[in-house]
Amino acid sequence: MSICGPFDPAFSDLPDVMPVFPLSGALLLPRGHLPLNIFEPRYMNMVADALGQDRIFGMIQPRPDQHKNYFMDPDHPEIFSTGCAGRITAFSETDDGRFLITLTGVCRFNVIEELPCTDGGYRTVRGDFSPWKDDLDIPADDTPINRDRLRIALEAYFAQHSLRSCWDTLADSDDEMLITTISMGCRLSPLEKQALLECTTLYDRGDMLTTLLEMAVHAGPKQVHGSAN
């Protein structure tokens, strides 16, 4: 079922070429809302240019080397082949010269090629949205997620990190928003978040998310760091 509203881009509106924001540990999923604090000059330029055009840019993660080092080339690291395009849906300026934006996920894409950096200093890619075209539709609920198993895993995860459970707040959400909110909000590793991004179906993502939370609880607390590149 299509969800295209008055402000939502149709598949034909998605750009062939778009800016990308490589950010380790950041996960954007279709219809998810990602708040971003933009302060680097090149990404200030990117946001300003996007606001003057279609308000769309892609979130994508730097690819680690075999030692899981994400900072091989701090200025231009290799990126994963799959990201998610988002549309700027909220925007404000701060007195100290930053942009505070909310990026709402639209559709995943595969990178066909990376193009030369723009005059503004940010990176752009030619992307292929066609393998992920179904992202523009509400996922079918033919196979509901196992909410009981997810709730147990999430509450154990929160308890381990000395956080208050938010299950009561999330429980009324539909399956997609429940999985999207938890996937984007939990402090999972960049590789784990990339795996969640690339899940084909909502059921697969829900099952993987639950398994990752169970594994995190079993392994004990860990610290995850992210950086813009």
UniProtKB/TrEMBL annotation:
Q: Supply the PROSITE patterns for this chain.
A: LON_N (PS51787)
Q: Which InterPro entries match?
A: Lon_prtase_N, Lon_prtase_N_sf, PUA-like_sf
Q: State the SMART domains in the record.
A: LON
- In this chain the Lon N-terminal domain maps to 18-217
Offer one Pfam family short name for this entry: LON_substr_bdg
Q: Which PANTHER family match?
A: ATP-DEPENDENT PROTEASE LA (LON) DOMAIN PROTEIN (PTHR46732)
What protein name applies here? Peptidase S16
Q: What is the species of this protein?
A: Thalassospira povalilytica
Lineage, opening ranks: Bacteria, Pseudomonadati, Pseudomonadota, Alphaproteobacteria, Rhodospirillales
